Amino acid sequence: xxxxxxxxxxxxxxxxxxQTLRQFTAARIALxxxxxxxxxxxxxxxxLAHAHARDAVYSALATDxxxxxxxxxxxxxxxxxxxASDRATYLQRPDWGRRLHPDSAAExxxxxxxxxxxxxxIADGLxxxxxxxxxxxxxxxxxxxxxxQGIKLAPLVLAEQGRVALADxxxxxxxxxxxLILIGERPGLSSPDSMGAYLTFAPAVGxxxxxxxxxxxxxxxxLPFKMASEKLLYLIQAVFRLQLSGVxxxxxxxxxxxAGDEAPASLI
Length: 268
Known about the structure:
This protein is an alpha/beta fold. It has a single domain, classed as Rossmann fold. Helices cover about 30% and strands about 15% of the residues. The chain is globular and about 70 Å long.
């Protein structure tokens, strides 16, 4: 009887030579290989990340919780809706997400005070999860600094089924000199909770994207709240000093700004 030949156990998962770089990024790099495929664990992780991204797109604003949390700022609050009546419509008709429902527009037209410097709008965008998770923490840092600078804030607006350009109509109806909309960004496979901020001077229906300044990936794993608030304060001050926004506004803030640094306080 022929004696069976013993074969040493071989590790079937081959590590990628760039494995050490994974400590610097959440991107899907250096996954390793099993034969001609990626390891099963990475395949399952990809499917889970994709599920989280899809869930974020279909997530809804936690309106009651946000209203309670935002009440600490002592500002009037509006809950408004775009012309997109539901999530399916919102995803299929981006143009309807850029305009207010007539009933919401009528609410703002009743606002008596029409001498605001800045309107702050909070919208679900493509990830209400991001807004639910991060917006209060950012505003806790930003709003007191704005008030210290003497910037007159309009009532806070919580907008459902909203796109970035919805802020243009809201700012126009409130007669605000500028708008800042905080909105959930399109989720990625490593960032289903990324929030963006878009700043526009002289908001009006029909404004296009070159007239805005954008800060993206606001979240603890991306652009931290402290740094984001300082950058936004700097940009807002520059907008009022120069009376413009968008591609004409150059960001001269030091690239190496750290979380402990302060934005210049003499620009407005």
